[in-house]
Specification:
Oligomer: single chain
Bound molecules: (3R)-3-hydroxy-3-methyl-5-(phosphonooxy)pentanoic acid
CATH architecture of the largest domain: 2-Layer Sandwich
Number of helices: 10
Largest sheet: 8 strands, mixed
CATH class of the largest domain: Alpha Beta
Number of domains: 2
Order of helices and strands: EEEHHEHHHEEEEHHHHEEHEE
Length: 314
């Protein structure tokens, strides 16, 4: 029997500029969809088994795809994934995978708010925690704020999950800068790390969440003015607070030390404990800073924004 249908969709990756972890508790975060794409091709057959890259075991080990297929009540799918986003790097690989895969599952282009909400539910079920920051950003494309009071043009709301949220998702004006993301090579697993941070925050008496929120709100205002130096300064402040939160790693310290004098700002992006750093320079010297990152053991990516979010390919 030949295939019943075959569809492909693509989704950008993402970086978090301000507010990772605190966004889980409804505080504001800012994230940018980046031009590192994940493409999912799904072929449906009239049978029961599921494969990823031709392997039933690989499918079985992928909680994100399993949650998404279960949500849509579909079986008999062959799924192929091509991605320039390294897994576990903090660049939104799982969010891009879910959002693109869900998009392939219906013939009509999905309504973006529904896709963002469903993608979050799948990611949450797979990780048992988290915020809609990644899934909403890759679905929307461009520069986005998630949580907080709302800072731009509202795109959608993501309903509360197990007592956290709801999160308002807004579009912000993207200054269109080039960024450098450097993967430490140390993959991290978001779910357990978010839990770990939650435990630390229970005993926090130093108002860390409030301090991160103040930096994120200043960051939103600086982005609005396209004030590059101020955004860089606030990234450095956010990084210090994330280290105080306990999500640093020796590999990240080495990379930060290697570029500190050459950038406007550098910070952990995503869950931390490994994962990636995000850096912003004066502009024009991104390749040089990328080399500094690789000399310090990192895997650098010079990235721009992706104004387009997840979409079905023709
Ligand atoms: O999965 P990562 O590394 O992109 O981290 C996402 C950001 C967190 O705030 C740590 C978790 C979340 O779901 O918001």
């Amino acid at each position: 029997m030949g295939p019943l249908w075959k569809r492909s969709a693509t989704s950008p990756g993402k970086v978090i500029l301000f507010g990772e972890h605190s966004v889980v508790y409804g505080r504001p975060a800012v994230a940018l969809a980046i031009d590192l794409l994940t493409t999912v091709e799904t072929t449906a057959y009239s049978r029961e088994d599921m494969t990823l890259g031709g392997s039933p075991d690989a499918y079985d080990r992928n909680p994100y795809l399993k949650e998404a297929a279960r949500m849509e009540g579909l079986r008999g799918l062959d799924i192929t994934v091509r991605s320039s986003v390294p897994m576990g790097s903090g660049m939104g690989s799982s969010a891009a995978l879910i959002s693109a895969f869900l998009t392939t599952l219906s013939a009509e282009p999905k309504d973006a708010p529904a896709l963002a909400r469903n993608s979050f539910v799948c990611e949450y079920q797979a990780q048992r925690t988290g915020s809609p920051a990644d899934t909403s950003t890759v679905t929307a494309g461009g520069l986005i704020s998630i949580g907080g009071r709302g800072y731009g043009t509202e795109l959608w709301q993501v309903p509360a999950m197990h007592g956290r949220g709801p999160w308002r998702v807004d579009r912000l004006r993207d200054p269109g800068w080039t960024w450098i993301v450097a993967f430490s090579g140390v993959p991290k697993s978001t779910g357990p790390r978010v839990h770990e941070v939650g435990v630390r925050l229970r005993d926090d008496t130093s108002h860390l969440l409030d301090r991160i929120t103040a930096v994120a709100e200043d960051g939103i205002r600086a982005l609005e003015r396209a004030d590059r130096a101020e955004v860089g300064r606030l990234m450095n402040l956010n990084h210090e607070l994330l280290v105080e939160l306990g999500i640093g790693h020796p590999s990240l310290d080495r990379m930060v030390a290697a570029v500190r004098g050459s950038v406007l700002g550098v910070k952990i992006t995503g869950a931390g404990f490994g994962g990636s750093l995000l850096a912003l320079t004066q502009g024009g010297d991104e390749e040089r800073v990328a080399r500094l990152f690789s000399d310090a053991g990192g895997i650098p990516f010079v990235v721009g924004s992706s104004p387009q979010g997840t979409r079905l390919l023709p």
